[in-house]
Amino acid sequence: MSCFWHSVDALEFTQHTLKLPLALEGKVYAVDILPQPGIELLAQIKHKQQTRFALYQWQSKQTITQRGTIIIQPEWLFFDYGKLQSQRIGIYFLTKDQLLRYNIETTNTEKVLDLHSIYQQQQHSRFTKMDFIQDLNQDGIDDIIIADFQGYHLWLQDTQGQLHYQFIAMPAMMRVFGERNIPSYYPYPLYNIDINKDKKPDIVFYKDNVLWGYIQTPKGFAKEAITIPLPFQLEESDWQERIRSSDERPDQSNLAFSSLQALVDLDGDQIVDIIAQKTTSKGVFNKKSAYQIYFGKWRNQQLYFDKTPHHSVKSDGVQFDLVLKDIFNQQRLTMINSSMLITLRKVMQALFTKKIDVDIIFYNLDKHRHYQATIEKSINVSFDFKTGYSSYPVNQLADLNNDGKLDLLLQEKTKVLAIYLNQDNKKSWKKAKVKLTLALPKSGESLFIQDVNQDTKQDIVVYYGKADGKKQQQIIRLLLQQ
């Protein structure tokens, strides 16, 4: 392990490089499953065609030690971690009919419960995490949620570690793809949000232009849903999925399409709001989209919405990757939106330069509850037509200086990470950016923020994938804040 020092404005970092014996084959996760103090890093590797998790722990003497290996079994479909029937966080594996707990001391698995699931087999070469352990009722205790063809299975955990079963009926949606008309099943997205203003999160679905709300009760969630019809039409899937689906082949020369993007309280008034994306297409290379904002209202003890949106957020080209964050700690969500202008000229330019411009725009609510563009950044997404890999630069939000506000981390060039610190009492970041110099991954998602050594200061973890080359694939970099 090598170590370097970085000083960034009021922030100081030491960089530590961990060399792995094998190349990474997937994501790196931060967990806390060992009794010793400190956060562990769970790295996915492959040895002799066998997928494994290597567990590394930061030691007080500024060293990183491998503390174990978990061999991924073929019947394990997904994994997650949380506190179930235990005082410590554990790793759990989902099979098609069981939930298993991994015992880090004996390296054996223990059955937690039998179940039925919509997930029947591994779909990807990479073993992935699924959020089947969540605090559904926000009582500070983890629960279990598993999607099935006919609905969702819930196991709500009480303070004694007992699991209480409940089933919520919401049959999966079906889409038909390909010339062979092969059906695919998708669980309806579950929104865990307060829909009746009692300050307790409920379980909400959107289906057939109706919100179906299962209200939280002292014993779980109501067996029957309250229904809130919407006075405007929204699709349950986006325009891209509609075009891919073989049971619907819309004419892209004349397409108008609105889909549900978010069901969330945008302005902190404890009433649910809706963000819909409206896409209009006059051809394959002539598409535009806008986000339509519907603020929820309260009348006769029930949620309702107006027929027309309060306002729309527009930008050139197609919008995607919508992110909502309370950046300034004011209980009001900022919209972070990526957009790209799709024209024949842009496509031809991308073919020659192997790059395309993507705009990242930050929209904040004004006093009239209109989202106004306040900050705009541009990044270059590059392509390798030989390997098929794409490079999406780092752009992330995190509170690095513990002031309760989110700072912006934005990649510049291949080895420069710019940090924009949030300004006090201003809805912007400091213009004087500060920089870190290090080898950055091709995928911006391969950088995350985590307090690795548990000193209450946020650190930066960087790892690399196949697009970065075999040598980089065997490296994890830790930038520990001093």
Q: In words, what does this structure look like?
A:
The protein is mainly beta and 482 residues long. It contains 3 helices and 41 strands. The strands form 11 sheets. Strands 1-2-41-40-39 form a 5-stranded antiparallel β-sheet. Strands 10-9-8-7-11 form a 5-stranded mixed β-sheet, with no helix packed on it. A 5-stranded antiparallel β-sheet has the order 30-31-32-33-34, with helices on one face. The radius of gyration is 24 Å and the shape is globular. The two termini are 18 Å apart. The model has no long low-confidence stretch (mean pLDDT 86).
Topology summary:
Layout lengths: L1 E7 L2 E9 L4 E8 L8 E8 L2 E10 L3 E9 L6 E5 L7 E5 L3 E5 L6 E6 L13 E2 L3 E2 L8 E6 L2 E7 L5 E7 L3 E5 L4 E5 L4 E3 L8 E6 L2 E5 L1 E2 L2 E2 L4 E4 L9 H6 L10 E10 L8 E9 L5 E8 L2 E3 L2 E3 L6 E4 L3 E8 L8 E7 L3 H10 L1 E11 L5 E13 L6 E2 L3 E4 L8 E6 L3 E5 L13 E4 L9 E4 L8 E5 L6 H4 L1 E7 L1
Parallel strand pairs: 7-11
Antiparallel strand pairs: 1-2, 2-41, 3-4, 4-5, 5-6, 7-8, 8-9, 9-10, 12-13, 13-14, 14-15, 16-17, 18-19, 19-20, 20-23, 21-22, 24-25, 25-26, 26-29, 27-28, 30-31, 31-32, 32-33, 33-34, 35-36, 36-37, 37-38, 39-40, 40-41
